Automatic annotation (TrEMBL):
Molecular function GO labels: beta-N-acetylhexosaminidase activity; polysaccharide binding
SMART domains from the UniProt entry: CHB_HEX
Enzyme class (EC, first level): hydrolase
Pfam family membership, one: CHB_HEX
Reactions accelerated catalytically: Hydrolysis of terminal non-reducing N-acetyl-D-hexosamine residues in N-acetyl-beta-D-hexosaminides
Family per record: Belongs to the glycosyl hydrolase 20 family.
Protein name, per record: beta-N-acetylhexosaminidase
Residues annotated as domain Chitobiase/beta-hexosaminidases N-terminal: 55-214
């Protein structure tokens, strides 16, 4: 989405109302032809000239001012400077393409015209009659909707193209890799240093950049001296009792004895225990018994002269072994004696991974599944289809992956989709790709072995551009072969539909027509083939997420819909609920449960929906989340919190212009914020949390839970518009996934019990911040231990740059997580470990390292 998830029009208006009225800007930016007009190439515009342009064109973006006004609404001013290669006059006939996920509303240039192609793809063309002299610089001033707070908003891989020539990526627009952190950087975007102009849009915005000095104060307020906890298990068990006696030596191995389960059911967890230091030979008895008296995910773990586990199911047994593995790694296989009684607070503990916007590898998904199991998460919501990509091979519909899984320069979209999200002109890039049927079966089996249910999702009826364009290629192929009936079978376009619309992501062609029989034939085919893959894996498809969000006012001029509405007495706003109800009923007939995003699901008639419905609530915590969650729970549905200002991992971990993340819902989602979330009492979060502008709010429980109703679960979300590599994905997920797992599993003593009708206001004392902080300090110290486990697993988690200040000629520094060592250096010096205040002169550079010393954070400078 422009913003990182799909955002419904009504919800987006609510969210953006917090950012100085950006929603009031027009939905159609700049001008929007179906494709940019390109003049015929001049005879002198040959491939060599285009290649030289790609190699040597200067390309530089600068964010000038975030405090602009466009049509009485807040906007920002940016400037793109193009410096032409040295030499003679450059011929016309070429176009520069680039991506920006957002809406440009106005542009000014003496030499170039700016036009929107579709979605986030824009085109710059030289103006007729303007001489483009070698070595000259031309600046295009561009005003954009909303704000631009971080350099990562701009996409890489701009390119030049001309008819009959091979397009070339502009070298100056490519990403670079930071040698310190190993992460992508965007050197073509100028540093953002003027906080007064760039740090906020309105005088009432209290959010400030997290400079090293401010980070120092924040870290100091959150941290105490590093301690060595006795028990390091995360998420925190319900009850732990330490026992006296010598520790149990597992270094030489253990004698595994099972009752009520087979070894295959716990293979992955046993492997994790061995990797934690338990040996391969024979040793103390480790008995695992299924006890049906316990709830399915509960377990009892006792470490004495042997290890005894009782669990309510194989899932509970796996949880117990994962807890034992964590403690074994910490204790060096000399496990202290203890007893644990444990069970989760919430039955649904999920993670959503978007591989549709930018593809992520099977290896990444498998590694993430292992970490989910380690921290007792049990649902993987795998987002496989959206506007920008279709990522699962479907038998009988090869175009879905041959075309829909790739983005490249093909304006006709016969071989690939448009190069959205900075994919660049080439087909063979890491952001393209898909899971083969065998890949998906491997993922399903790996998840099942770890007690995790995979919930696949192809977002519909909006967010369906990849499917629509792929099926158009199929249509043309079969029509050319003379198979008109076959061509029409899964066609998702109605030729006579003249509806003009723009989705939140600025597409004018991304919504399935819900009045066409072919739409439902296509869905039937996709679901049936997905079911077959689950059956082949031995993992029946239990639940399917239909999306059902952000339908962008389509169908108003559709002849099929006009006839359908007249026949059934419906109006256009009722078509999306009709679609959801129909697809949900169809899924129920196949024995599949329905899940969807709350904005679409909330418009349905509960009486027409199946018995089991999952709704992901993604309204703002300080906005409509409580009302929406309680209302949909009261319908008898399973409510899963996906609130973007707390659980979206594509939001920045700190308000910093160098954090490559979107921030439409939050500019500051760090681990402490996630840790302090209260999922079972949404209004109570107003006591502790501030909104995107750093301001407090009052949240009243206007729609209380009905007796017997409540929350089913919580889910973290990783949307991938600006997440182009697996390492970038891990950087966003970890370590923030651990406090999310903590809140999903463990109810803290400081959380305010839910009280129907209660109101909460920021700072009202109804939730004790000192109690939260005290609990956090214990969690943080254990988190430091778990960073070492993530190091061992090769997870590229985020290392927060240190806080620092210079006072009286001395350097003071601290880390967000005390277990990450700090290093510093003066200009030209070697890195030196920081162990305490030290005398310095001049600017000082600082960084933290991972506990194993192999990875580094971004460098920050303090003066």
């Amino acid at each position: 989405m422009t913003l990182a998830h799909s955002v419904s029009l009504s919800t987006l208006a609510l969210v953006l109302s917090l950012t100085a009225g950006c929603a009031a800007l027009p939905q159609t930016p700049v001008s929007a032809p179906a494709a940019p007009s390109v003049a015929p190439p001049l005879p002198s515009l040959d491939q060599a000239t285009l290649d030289r342009l790609g190699d040597h064109l200067g390309y530089r973006w600068e964010i000038v001012d975030n405090r602009q006004t466009c049509d009485k609404a807040a906007c920002f001013l940016s400037a793109l400077t193009l410096t032409l290669p040295e030499g003679g006059e450059l011929p016309g006939g070429w176009t520069l393409y680039f991506s920006y996920v957002g809406a440009f509303v106005r542009s000014e240039s003496d030499a170039f015209d700016l036009k929107q192609v579709n979605g986030d793809l824009y085109a710059l063309t030289p103006k007729g009659g303007v001489a483009l002299k070698g070595g000259a610089s031309h600046t295009v001033r561009v005003w954009g909707q909303g704000h631009f707070y971080a350099r990562g908003f701009m996409m890489p891989n701009a390119y030049v193209a001309a008819p009959a020539l091979t397009p070339r990526t502009i070298r100056a627009s490519k990403v670079a890799i930071d040698r310190e952190s190993g992460l992508e950087t965007l050197p073509f975007v100028a540093p953002m240093t003027d906080e007064a102009k760039l740090g906020s849009q309105t005088p009432g915005d209290k959010t400030q950049w997290l400079t090293p000095q401010r980070a120092y104060e924040r870290n100091a307020s959150h941290n105490v001296a590093l301690t060595r906890p006795a028990v390091v298990i995360l998420p925190t068990p319900a009850k732990v009792t330490l026992q006296k006696g010598a520790p149990l030596d597992l270094s030489k191995g253990f004698d595994l004895r099972l009752k009520g389960l087979g070894r295959d059911a716990i293979t992955a967890a046993v492997k994790a225990l061995k990797q934690a230091g338990a040996g391969e030979g024979r040793g103390p008895v480790l008995s695992v018994t299924i006890d049906p008296k316990l709830s399915p995910e509960a377990y009892r773990l006792a470490v004495g002269k042997s290890v005894t586990i009782r669990a309510g199911s194989t899932t509970g047994a796996n949880h117990a072994l994962r807890s034992l593995a964590q403690q074994t790694a910490f204790d060096g296989a000399q496990v202290r004696r203890m007893t644990i009684e444990d069970a989760p607070r919430l039955p649904f503990r999920g993670l959503h991974i978007d591989v549709a916007r930018n593809f992520h590898s099977k290896v990444f998904v498998l590694e993430t599944l292992e970490q989910m199991a380690a921290y007792k998460l049990n649902r993987l919501h795998l987002h496989l289809g959206d506007d920008e990509g279709w990522r699962l091979e479907i038998e009988g519909l090869p175009e879905l992956t041959q075309v829909g899984a790739y983005r490249c320069h093909d304006l006709a979209e016969e071989t690939c989709l448009l190069p959205q999200l900075g994919a660049g002109p080439e087909r063979d890039t890491p952001v393209n790709g898909y899971f083969t049927k065998a890949d998906y079966i491997d993922i399903l089996r790996a998840a099942q072995a770890r007690g995790i249910e995979v919930i696949p999702s192809f977002d519909m009826p909006g967010h369906s551009r990849a499917a629509i364009k792929s099926m158009e290629v199929r249509y043309r192929r079969l029509m050319a072969a003379g198979d008109a009936a076959g061509a029409a079978q899964y066609r998702l376009v109605e030729p006579g539909d003249t509806t003009a619309y723009r989705s939140i992501q600025h597409y004018n062609d991304n919504t399935l027509n819900v009045c066409l029989p072919a739409t439902y034939a296509f869905i039937d085919k996709v679901i049936d083939e997905t079911m077959k893959l689950h059956q082949a894996a031995g993992v029946p498809l239990k639940r399917y997420h239909i999306g059902a969000d952000e339908t962008a006012g389509a169908w108003t001029q559709s002849p099929a819909c006009q006839a359908f509405m007249a026949q059934n007495g419906l109006k256009a706003p009722q078509l999306t609920p009709y679609f959801i109800e129909r697809v949900s009923a169809y899924l129920a007939e196949k024995g599949i449960e329905t899940a969807g995003w709350s904005d679409g699901m909330g418009h349905t008639d509960a009486a027409r929906m199946p018995k089991v419905v999952q709704s992901n609530i993604w309204s703002a915590t300080l906005g409509a989340a409580a009302t929406e969650a309680h209302d949909q729970a009261n319908r008898g549905w399973e409510v899963v919190l996906s609130v973007p200002d707390v659980t979206y991992f594509d939001m920045p971990p700190a308000p910093d212009p160098d954090e490559t993340a979107y921030d439409w819902a939050s500019r500051d989602t760090d681990s402490y914020k996630i840790f302090s979330f209260q999922p079972e009492n949404l209004p109570a979060n107003a006591s502790l949390l501030t909104d995107i502008r750093g301001q407090g709010a009052t949240v009243a429980d206007k729609t209380p839970y009905a007796p017997g109703r409540g929350l089913t679960g919580i889910q973290g979300q990783l949307w991938s518009e600006v997440v182009r590599t697996d390492d970038e994905a891990e950087y966003r997920l970890f370590p923030r996934l651990l406090p999310l797992a903590e809140r999903a599993w463990h109810r803290a003593g400081w959380e305010a019990p839910y009280k129907a009708g209660e109101s909460y206001t920021y700072g009202d004392g109804k939730v004790d911040p000192k109690a939260v902080l005290g609990d956090w300090q214990g969690f943080r110290d254990r988190l430091g231990v778990h960073l070492r486990l993530l190091d061992q697993a090769g997870i590229a988690y985020r290392l927060a740059p240190p806080g620092a200040k210079i006072e009286g000629g001395q350097l003071f520094a601290n880390a967000e997580i005390a277990a990450t060592p700090i290093e510093y250096r003066l200009t030209g010096d070697e890195w030196t470990p920081y162990t305490g205040p030290v005398a310095v002169s001049g600017p000082v550079e600082l960084r933290v390292t991972s506990p194993d010393g192999r990875r580094k954070s971004r460098i920050v400078t303090v003066k």
